[in-house]
């Protein structure tokens, strides 16, 4: 075994699940490269390389990719960055729809393909895509977000073979509601925050799942039940989501 | 809407494959407008004479949605009964991974354009309590042959599922997933299906089954051999 320092890449690391994942990886002694829309607060340190890039901007991403490839090879890659847009679909401006697809689906797909092609993932590495529990339940009130997250989940499944030829395991993570700023921004006003999983706990479950090379990771017991029900009764699950989310939406947020 | 009534139908990607087959199937009894990315002169010989044609390249989603909206206005269509968003592109990469440009183009044509067209068409469809039909693919469950294509089609499925719930009561939303067809799409994507290709559905049969599904408004629907052998090309309600 080589004594090479373990290295991880996390996108969307400035808040929520990405921040919790980064903290855990740092605590385990990983060197972590983070990619964020804006520079996160706190002083940079030796263990952490912070890269700033708006993932909706194709030129910016093309400029950033070589930097990320140079900083590898990685043992863990978590393509976690995502944005949502909630409200009536027909009210969302075209620019918002385009941005949601680019950040939530296109950018992680482009990054994963580039990392695999450049052999920037060390043999035995884990590649994790953060999709959404909405893949199983449907998500009226966030139609573009649901579309992008479904696209990402199926892309992850489709490149599994190409990744395993390079010794890389692909996992797809389907988090339910987390207690993050993103959830507070997009959930209906009366939704209770206590039911949401704390991001630190979700991060622990995600890293455990990666460790065990699970293909599908659904952090938390309640989301797991929802995922199972959505699989068995897709129509009923979407109708439930309509009552729980769409009919309670009191504002449009993007 | 009573069966047999003349309907206004928009079909994207109607110059080849399933879109063309559907336009030919519906043009004798309905008003059909077809979109494609070629110039009008290049496609008119192929299309039914009564079809209107709009040139719109879905690789530029914003411009394409504007072009289609302008064409609807020019035709004096104040409402639409059906919009069939069928246009798509696919690529089969060697080694199982596409480059960035291919991923971006596939998502723009197959997914982003569909989102922008659906949004633009909402008021047109709601005037007549119309139906939005999204053409997916059985590849939506994932395939190593066409990763970005499969992803874009999964996106359409999730989008249609959410939108059907959101628009309940105003505009119908339906997702149809055709199985492999003899449309030339595999060749265009750079994949040779080999002897299996003989078993692919004829696009005309798929279009006939699809016309029934437009009439019933069911979703999601899979168009494959099982339905074909059950007589689905002639067995169900007529549009």
From TrEMBL, chain A:
GO terms for cellular component: membrane. Gene3D superfamilies: NAD(P)-binding Rossmann-like Domain (3.40.50.720). Pfam families: adh_short. InterPro entries: KR_dom (IPR057326), NAD(P)-bd_dom_sf (IPR036291), Sc_DH/Rdtase_CS (IPR020904), SDR_fam (IPR002347). SUPFAM superfamilies: NAD(P)-binding Rossmann-fold domains. The keyword Transport does not apply. Residues 6-180 form the Ketoreductase domain. One of its GO terms (molecular function) is oxidoreductase activity. It comes from the Bacteria. SMART domains: PKS_KR. Belongs to the short-chain dehydrogenases/reductases (SDR) family. This is Short-chain dehydrogenase. It comes from Zhengella mangrovi.
TrEMBL record, chain B:
The keyword Repressor does not apply. Keywords: Oxidoreductase. Gene3D superfamilies: NAD(P)-binding Rossmann-like Domain. The keyword Mitochondrion does not apply. GO terms for molecular function: oxidoreductase activity. It holds the Pfam family adh_short. Belongs to the short-chain dehydrogenases/reductases (SDR) family. PANTHER family: OXIDOREDUCTASE-RELATED (PTHR43391:SF94), RETINOL DEHYDROGENASE-RELATED (PTHR43391). This is Short-chain dehydrogenase.
